[in-house]
Every structure is written in C-alpha cells, then in structure tokens.
C-alpha cells in the first residue's frame, strides 16, 4: 500500500482507491495508465471507484518496516483521497494519515473534493492542498464534472489554513486560452493565503499545441506565478516542461500527475 513514487514532488505515496468519480477529462493521466495496464476497461469503470477496504491494515503492517526510509507520504497520485460524495473514502484517508503520523511521518494530501473537518484533529506536521485551475463553474462541469465546486474547495482549504495547517494549491494542468479564456491573476488572488503553489501546464491534450505560441503563453504565466509568490513569500514550484526558460523539458512533456 505504501510505495516510493518517482514523480517530481513525492517521496512515498498511498493510493488506496482504484478509479475516481471526479472523472476529469483533460485527460486524467491516472486513468490513461489504469486503462493501459488493464486495471479498468473504460471511463465508466474508472468513475466507479473501488476502495481497498483493508488499506488501513496494510499500512499498519508495512509501516514498522518502512518507517526509517520514509520522509513523507502523499495522498494520492493515482486517485483522490477526499473524493466528493464518498465519505467512506475520506474517512479511510484520515485514518491512514493518523496512522502514518503516529510514526512521526508527515503527510501531504491533494484533492478536488472538500477537505473534511476531521482533518482539524490531525497532526500539524501535515499539509493539505487542493487543485485549482479555474474559477469558472462551467469549465469545472465540463472537465472535472464529479468534483466539488471551486468555492467549496477553496473554503475548506481556508478553514484548514485558519486552523494553523500548512496549505498549498496545485494549479495543474493549466489550460490554454483556446480551451478557456481566463485570468490567472484572479485564481491566484483567490488563494493568496496558501504556503505553497505548484504550477504546471496541460499535457496529453492536442488543443494545447494547436494554440499558437503556447510555449510563450506558458512562459508568461510562469513569470506571473513566480512574481506573485515572491511578493507574498509563498513557496513556488514550477512543474518540469512548463517553462522553456527556467525548467527545460527533459523528458518530452513532463510527467503530469493527477490533481
Ligand atoms: S485527475 Fe485526479 S481528481 Fe481527476 S479523475 Fe484523475 S485522479 Fe480523479
């Protein structure tokens, strides 16, 4: 259940659910992988999540052997730990976080659902995040139709910030203007209280490369995000392959992880 991840900002991870009802259509990289390796047959199956009901027991069994190797655990890279409308998944995620914290190991979590109030009782060494790539509800309905509204996501994150937790936002996969015309500054202003922002381009979608000068566009957004973070003393991470200048693409597109 606990395994080391190869992605950019991860150490160990737990992915205790197969599938995700949020059903993102950017497309979702986790879905593409699950289909490729035969774990799900189609999109409908992907959107009907299956919780590993023994996930907590497995984590309890594995932690004593792994505890000295693990610096942090991320929930989740291939599903959503606080899937909207699935309280049993959220509840299991909090139980797993508590169990990992018992060994002095911090957790990070990222969601397109709502961060539950049960997290207020968890250790302050954890940090909690949401994905936010727009404020436009029509866009959310089209591309992330099973997820929580942007307003509810931000408000659950703000409450955790007010409770003294470190909070972060993943602005990825950020779309080009031929997909949606929007102002990134407005999105940044809506989450100016967070401790960390991760910004990344949209991958695996032909519309991006159809947009003339898409690389210049992403380069200008990277400057905007960097300036915003610098002015507000917010930690900033630009995903590989997003900017041509600061972070040249080494692996042909960068690894686009979910959320
Ligand atoms: S991108 Fe994340 S939230 Fe969306 S379907 Fe994939 S795993 Fe779920």
Key descriptive features of the protein:
259 residues, globular, binds iron/sulfur cluster, eight-stranded mixed β-sheet, disordered C terminus, TIM Barrel, 16% strand, 9 helices, alpha/beta, two-stranded antiparallel ribbon
Describe it for me?
α3 (55-66) runs parallel beside α4 (87-101). Residues 247-258 have low confidence and may be disordered. The longest helix is centred in the C-terminal third of the chain and has 19 residues, at 214-232. The protein is an alpha/beta fold and 259 residues long. It has helices at residues 29-36, 43-46, 55-66, 87-101, 137-143, 150-162, 184-190, 206-210, 214-232, and strands at 2-4, 12-14, 17-18, 50-51, 73-75, 107-111, 127-131, 166-174, 196-201, 235-238. It has a single domain, classed as TIM Barrel (Alpha-Beta Barrel), CATH 3.20.20.70. Helix content is 35%, strand content 16%. 41% of the residues are buried. An 8-stranded mixed sheet has the order 1-2-5-6-7-8-9-10. The radius of gyration is 18 Å and the shape is globular. The protein binds iron/sulfur cluster. The site of iron/sulfur cluster has 12 residues, from α1.
Layout of strands and helices, then pairs:
Elements: E1 2-4, E2 12-14, E3 17-18, H1 29-36, H2 43-46, E4 50-51, H3 55-66, E5 73-75, H4 87-101, E6 107-111, E7 127-131, H5 137-143, H6 150-162, E8 166-174, H7 184-190, E9 196-201, H8 206-210, H9 214-232, E10 235-238
Parallel strand pairs: 2-5, 5-6, 6-7, 7-8, 8-9, 9-10
Antiparallel strand pairs: 1-2, 3-4
Helix pairs in contact: 3-4
Iron/sulfur cluster binds at residues 20, 22-24, 28, 30-31, 79-80, 112, 258-259.
């Amino acid at each position: 259940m606990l395994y080391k991840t190869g992605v950019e900002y991860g150490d160990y991870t737990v992915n205790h659910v197969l599938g995700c009802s949020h059903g993102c259509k950017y497309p979702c990289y986790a879905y593409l992988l699950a289909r490729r390796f035969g774990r799900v047959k189609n999109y409908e199956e992907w959107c009907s999540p299956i919780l590993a009901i023994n996930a907590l027991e497995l984590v309890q069994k594995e932690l004593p052997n792994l505890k000295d190797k693990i610096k942090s655990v991320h929930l989740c890279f291939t599903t959503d730990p606080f899937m909207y409308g699935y309280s049993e998944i959220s509840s299991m995620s909090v139980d797993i976080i508590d169990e990992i914290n018992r060994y002095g190991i911090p957790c990070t979590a990222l969601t397109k659902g709502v961060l539950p109030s049960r997290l207020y009782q968890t250790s302050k060494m954890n940090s909690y995040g949401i994905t936010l790539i727009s404020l436009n509800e029509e866009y959310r309905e089209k591309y992330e139709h099973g997820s929580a509204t942007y307003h509810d996501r931000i408000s659950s994150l703000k409450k955790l910030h007010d409770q003294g937790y470190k909070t972060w936002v993943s602005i990825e996969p950020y779309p080009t203007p031929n997909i949606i015309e929007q102002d990134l500054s407005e999105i940044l202003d809506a989450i100016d209280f967070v401790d960390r922002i991760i910004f990344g381009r949209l991958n695996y979608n032909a519309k991006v490369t159809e947009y003339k000068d898409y690389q210049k566009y992403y380069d200008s957004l990277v400057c905007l995000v960097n300036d915003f973070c610098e002015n507000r003393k917010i930690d900033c991470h630009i995903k590989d392959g997003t900017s041509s200048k600061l972070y040249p693409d080494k692996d042909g597109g960068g690894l686009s992880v979910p959320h």
